[in-house]
């Protein structure tokens, strides 16, 4: 196992966590095995009492290929440890269920990915956890909602789909004063621009399906934090409930991590150029992107994140009719609901990802009928702009 502690992020992205078998393979070995054989009965007993580094028992608990992924992402995020999961939602639900019990009080920001909202509202509620929602951008609401007995705070550091940026250092300070743990769903910040660990987040979760794979190939997720929390609370819950990452997916996600920084920085630069070019377009009433000076949390985003992200949103003046006409006219940008992919993607949240929400909730979150979420990919920026402008002109 390599010691990557002195390396810069791009070196860690390529070599972090690497182990080589006796064959000295270049690429990470893919250990497609569900279990492991022991040299003798006493070794099996010893491993069940306490397994050392690189001693595995069963792939639901851990696997050599998955371990390389966990170590590499932990090193990139600046966390002591990580547990890889089958999907982003396995990470979110695993983190919340591992840390909460009946009678606990949880405070969460209201602007959440639909499935996160389901876990908080429907699942935790069913098991006797009291969940209170606040406007994540309003520190006074966090201050008022977080109580001495609050167990946990949950938020998306940059919200989906309206790209609100939460003042992470301040929310963490309020939560920690009350003794509450802070769990951050950090998908939109990406491991490249995230400083959540530096700001003191206790648990950071990613859907690796998004930028970490970044090529639309597989599902994955990861829960990151201190060794004490990951091995003491998260691992026991995850290994017995079954949301483990497959070794094949870990192998693909490792190649994703290798190029993550290069891809995300290129995508963010394109997103910045596109946001600037479309702001003020006659067919668009508003462009939402943390990299634009007009964004309500522009200064905050610059202060607490390493970059603006790769996703922007825009509100078309003609509502749903205009939004659908715009999407149908796109030739390069695909209509889908993923994000962080090498292929640019347009999404109409009101009728797809956020369809389930009642109208008043949509209004509260700024999910209008004209809102388009645009995940900027790796195509040529000029080609993308030409595609977007031609589609806007046809509205
Ligand atoms: C996609 C997403 C998830 C869920 O991830 P899956 O890999 O699809 O399970 C959770 N949170 C956010 C913010 C997301 O964008």
TrEMBL record:
Which key words tag this protein in UniProt? Amino-acid biosynthesis, Methionine biosynthesis, Pyridoxal phosphate, Transferase
In what pathway does it function? Amino-acid biosynthesis; L-methionine biosynthesis via de novo pathway; L-homocysteine from O-succinyl-L-homoserine: step 1/1
Q: Which family does it belong to?
A: Belongs to the trans-sulfuration enzymes family. MetZ subfamily.
Q: Which GO terms describe its biological process?
A: 'de novo' L-methionine biosynthetic process; homocysteine biosynthetic process; transsulfuration
Give the matching HAMAP family: MetZ
Q: Kindly state which reaction or reactions the protein catalyses.
A: O-succinyl-L-homoserine + hydrogen sulfide = L-homocysteine + succinate
InterPro entries membership: Cys/Met-Metab_PyrdxlP-dep_enz, O-succ-hSer_sulfhydrylase, PyrdxlP-dep_Trfase, PyrdxlP-dep_Trfase_major, PyrdxlP-dep_Trfase_small
**GO MF annotation terms:** carbon-sulfur lyase activity; pyridoxal phosphate binding; transferase activity, transferring alkyl or aryl (other than methyl) groups
Residues bearing N6-(pyridoxal phosphate)lysine? Answer: 210
The record's note on quaternary structure and interaction partners says: Homotetramer.
- According to the lineage, what is the superkingdom? Bacteria
In the UniProt record, does the keyword Chaperone occur? no
Encoding gene per record: metZ
Known function: Catalyzes the formation of L-homocysteine from O-succinyl-L-homoserine (OSHS) and hydrogen sulfide.
* Known EC number: 2.5.1.-
Needed co-factor(s): pyridoxal 5'-phosphate
Q: What is this protein called?
A: O-succinylhomoserine sulfhydrylase
CC annotations in GO: cytoplasm
């Amino acid at each position: 196992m390599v010691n990557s502690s002195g390396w810069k992020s791009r070196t860690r992205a390529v070599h972090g966590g690497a182990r080589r078998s006796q064959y000295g393979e270049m690429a990470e070995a893919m250990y497609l095995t569900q279990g492991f054989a022991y040299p003798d009965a006493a070794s099996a007993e010893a491993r069940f009492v306490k397994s050392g580094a690189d001693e595995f028992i069963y792939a639901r608990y851990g696997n050599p290929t998955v371990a390389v992924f966990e170590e590499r992402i932990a090193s990139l995020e600046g966390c002591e440890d990580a547990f890889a999961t089958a999907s982003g939602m396995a990470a979110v639900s695993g983190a919340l269920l591992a840390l909460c019990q009946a009678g606990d009080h949880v405070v969460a920001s209201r602007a959440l990915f639909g499935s996160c909202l389901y876990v908080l509202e429907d699942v935790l509620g069913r098991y006797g956890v009291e969940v209170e929602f606040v406007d994540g951008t309003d520190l006074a609401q966090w201050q008022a909602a977080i109580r001495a007995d609050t167990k946990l705070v949950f938020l998306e550091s940059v919200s989906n789909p309206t790209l609100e940026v939460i003042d992470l250092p301040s929310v963490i300070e309020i939560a920690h004063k009350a003794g509450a743990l802070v769990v951050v769903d950090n998908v939109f910040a990406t491991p490249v621009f995230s400083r959540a660990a530096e700001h003191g987040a206790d648990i950071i979760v990613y859907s690796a399906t998004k930028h970490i794979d970044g090529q639309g190939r597989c599902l994955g997720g990861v829960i990151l934090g201190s060794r004490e929390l990951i091995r003491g609370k998260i691992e026991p819950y995850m290994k017995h409930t079954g949301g483990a990452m497959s070794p094949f997916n870990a192998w693909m996600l490792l190649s994703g991590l290798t190029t993550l920084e290069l891809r995300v920085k290129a995508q963010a630069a394109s997103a910045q150029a596109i946001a600037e070019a479309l702001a003020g377009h006659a067919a668009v009433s508003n462009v939402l992107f943390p990299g634009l000076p007009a964004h309500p949390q522009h200064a905050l985003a610059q202060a607490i994140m390493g970059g603006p992200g790769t996703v922007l949103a825009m509100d078309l003046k003609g509502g749903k009719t205009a939004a659908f006409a715009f999407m149908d006219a796109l030739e390069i940008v695909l209509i889908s609901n993923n994000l962080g992919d090498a292929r640019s993607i347009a999404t109409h949240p009101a009728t797809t990802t956020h369809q389930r929400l009642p109208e008043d909730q949509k209004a509260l979150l700024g999910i209008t009928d004209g809102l388009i979420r645009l995940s900027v990919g790796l195509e040529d920026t000029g080609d993308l702009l030409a595609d977007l402008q031609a589609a806007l002109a046809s509205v």
